[in-house]
Amino acid sequence: MAKIVDRAIWNIGPLFIVIAVILVDLCALAYYLVVFPYTYNWSDASILRRIYIIATLAFTFYMVYCIHFHYYMAIRTPPGGTADSGRTSRPDQTSEEQEASLRQVLLEMEEYDEYPRTCKKCHQPKPERAHHCSVCNSCVLRFDHHCPWIHNCVGHFNHRYFVLFMTYMVVSAAYFAVFSWRPFIISIDFVNTEWPYYFPRPLLAFALILAICMGLALGALCAWHYYLILTAQTTVEFYNNYYEKGLAKSEGEIFVNMYNFGAKENLKRFFNIGDRYRWYTVFYPIPIPPRGAGRVFEKCEEFYQLSHSRQRNQIRANQEVQDLDDMKDI
Ligand SMILES: [Zn+2]
Ligand SMILES: [Zn+2]
């Protein structure tokens, strides 16, 4: 049964993408054909007002482009297969980056000595934080969840694009809802008002309701993902950590999330800010890879301060959750 559902989710993926693009572009079209001409009157505007109108137009084009760019990248970027080689070194690497990759390789060797495991379903080596996606039928690095709206898994290499896509969507939906409110009132008053726009009245009403619904739904999902980013967890890890936290509490111990370096540092690590990219690069609609190859992850100081047996217990608990994925519908 689970397999049938997985197959259905996989097959319906492309249709979901087409629907998402149509709905987003419908709202964009409603904005440029109705809301923008309604809000801004070019012919009576002063020079200053005209500059403001042009700036507004540029801002909205930027938002629409960012939505499409990050959506495209979330769909097209492989989330990270465990069979890919993560040890590529580029000729343009700086000495710090080379040092970082060397540190990465050493970490990998150390980790592999301790946890040489393979996935029972796809028989590939299974690094820490990787999980098997039953829809894609492959293991994914730092797996978060499978998203039918991008017909892809959300994993190490595309999580950043996915979160930025949601962020731009939520901000744009709020902006659209605020400015399309008055045209919406006019659009539903069929008796007393004229409609001089090249866009059907009912469609504008539909676009506003859609923007509100999409904004609220994505807003909740987006807030959830920012919470996960700030606490250095994936969706899968959250449930496991929640359980482990309860267990530690009942034993009078303090639970330590080994990947948690504090909210600010977690955010920087997620958006890959610091080493090569400055903070404002999150506003650039350009491809930016995540930090690291996604096979091994640095652990925080608090984790190393735990007793050796507790460190091992925690790692074993994480592995058990990974193995649970493999046991499903075998
Ligand atoms: Zn697998
Ligand atoms: Zn998947």
From TrEMBL:
Residues 116-241 form the Palmitoyltransferase DHHC domain. The chain crosses the membrane at residues 12-35, 47-67, 161-184, 204-229. The keyword Acyltransferase applies. Pfam families: DHHC. GO terms for cellular component: membrane. Keywords: Acyltransferase, Lipoprotein, Membrane, Palmitate, Transferase, Transmembrane, Transmembrane helix. Its main location: membrane. The keyword Acyltransferase applies. InterPro entries: Palmitoyltrfase_DHHC, PFA4/ZDH16/20/ERF2-like. GO terms for molecular function: protein-cysteine S-palmitoyltransferase activity. It catalyses: L-cysteinyl-[protein] + hexadecanoyl-CoA = S-hexadecanoyl-L-cysteinyl-[protein] + CoA. It is found in: Membrane. Signal peptide: none annotated. Belongs to the DHHC palmitoyltransferase family. The DHHC domain is required for palmitoyltransferase activity. This is Palmitoyltransferase. The lineage of its organism: Eukaryota, Fungi, Fungi incertae sedis, Mucoromycota, Mucoromycotina.
